[in-house]
Amino acid sequence: MSIHQPHDKLIKNVLKHKAVSREFFDALLPSHIRNIIELETLELNSTTFIDEKLRGTSCDLLFSTKFAGRPGYLYILCENQSKSDRYMPLRLWRYMLSIMKQHSKTHPNEPLPLIYPLTFFTGKKPYDQSMDFLDLFDEVDRDLARHIMYNPFQLVDLNLTNESDFSKYVMLNTLVMAMKHYQHIDQYLSEMAQLFAAIDQRGETDFACAIINYLVDRGKAGSAKEFIDELHEALPESQRGNMESISQYLVNQGIQKGRVEGEQIGIQKGREEGREEVAVNMLQLGMGTDDVVKCSGLQRAVVEALAEQLKVSKTEH
After folding, report:
1. What are the angstrom distances between the C-alpha of 278 and each of 5, 245, 260?
2. Residue 215 in contact with residue 227, Cβ under 8 Å?
3. Is residue 41 packed enough to be buried (19+ CB in 10 Å), middle (13-18) or exposed (0-12)?
4. How far is CA 263 from CA 9, 128, 256, 274, in A?
5. Phi/psi of residue 12, nearest 5 degrees
6. How far lies 135's CA from each of 88, 125, 140, in Å?
7. Which residue has the higher pLDDT, 302 or 103?
């Protein structure tokens, strides 16, 4: 890593020495952290976590250590930017998460380590931005941000969901049922048929077709048309016209797909014919088979067949 700022380069060089790094942390760590850190266990790590574009004005050092006997890290970020960085707390969070990610790979199934960050700022003016990550949020949102970030995340476990929980939400209910029961979707055709009929009446054909294509892709429905036919059969006869929009949409989708595939095949065929024409011209100029294969990109067997056709043509004339 290239460090252009002399302050940062100095910090990087001198803190490699254990005596200096121990004195550095002994003097600068707050007492409640210093009292549980075992400085005699300090080991300098060689990895950097700084963004590529910031490495000319920043450097970092990562020390492994023990927090009251448990593995942890001290992370030093050296900054020499022309002005204070409002998003410094966000950057530190990102760097620390990267450290945790690296640690989890080398120590799978173990608790995440404590990381204490320390930023060493050497700018020309005193640092004038907040050091609190939550201050990056609007003042009215900070309590909610704290609650969201420091409480367990919300989990929707399909194994524990009941379709009746979403009975008034037609599209969500359809999505949950498809994802939860895709392996045995044929056992839920009656319920799915009613949901698709309601979706059709709403005009949400894109959504309906996405669900159908999902089931087809998972191999649990033979084809989109077959699945629609099964849904029609599962509906009472008086309601079987309620999925016409979805059926027509799938037909149109199939036609469009056929057009695109046809165009692609035509383009590819044109390319092949163009290369064969070039190969024939090269053969007529007396170029050898090996050279024609290299230049045209055609298979040797194709070039040899073209050469044979030229011989036959010359013989006939």
Report:
1. 59, 49, 27
2. yes
3. middle
4. 60, 61, 11, 16
5. -60, -40
6. 11, 21, 10
7. 103
Amino acid at 56: G
The answer to whether 198 and 171 have CB atoms below 8 angstroms apart is no
Amino acid type, 98: S
In total, the chain counts a number of residues equal to 317
Cα dihedral 162, 167, 179, 249 in deg (nearest 10): 170
- pLDDT digit string (tens) for 86-98? 999 998 999 899 9
Report which of 177, 263, 171 is spatially closest to residue 208, judged by C-alpha positions.
Answer: 171
The predicted structure's pLDDT at residue 34: 95
Within 8 A by CB and 6+ apart from 264, the residues are none
pTM above 0.85, yes or no: no
Residue 67 φ then ψ, to 5°: -105, 105
Measured in whole angstroms, the distance separating CA 296 from the mean position of its chain's CA atoms is 38
Between 30 and 80, the more confident residue is 30
Tokens representing residue 135 in the block: 């201050």
183: amino acid identity, one letter: Q
Only one residue has tokens 């969201």, namely 148
Nearest to 7 by CA among 73, 77, 94: 77
Look at residue 124 and tell me whether its pLDDT is greater than 90.
no
- Segment holding 62, helix H or strand E: strand 58-67
Element spanning 76, H or E: strand 70-79
* Rounded distance between C-alpha atoms, residue 73 and residue 45, angstroms: 10
pLDDT 10s digits, 132-180: 999 999 999 999 999 999 999 999 898 888 878 888 899 999 999 999 9
Cβ-proximal residues to 77 (8 Å cutoff; 6+ apart), any chain: 50, 58, 60, 91, 92, 95, 117, 118, 119, 120
Q: How confident is the model over 34-68, as pLDDT tens digits?
A: 999 999 999 998 777 776 665 555 678 899 999 99
